[in-house]
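Here is one chain, start to finish.
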Amino acid sequence: MHTPGPWWVDPTLKLGAIDVRVDDSPETSVIVASVHCTRTLNEADNAQLIAASPDLLVAAKALLRLCSTIEVLGEWEATDTNQKMRVTERAKVDKALDDMQAAIAKATQGG
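Its structure:
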């Protein structure tokens, strides 16, 4: 289980790293990650992405639950052309949902 958010980026560069912290107060916050600055990467952007991780995980889980309970593309049309297009679109939706499920598993199970 990950440390619940909100996580935030400490803008103060300390010991060559940008810290991602949890807790609302700088005085009581705890470092959950440090992005070491090498001047070759986008450290600030990487730190922002790390800080957004708990929120992204919650949103992905909610969207996956929602998509699994509704018919995303509606009723099938009778024409061959329309059906082929809907099958293609459905395959794209199914792949996106599979990718989201895999990302959630990677975040929560390390795999």
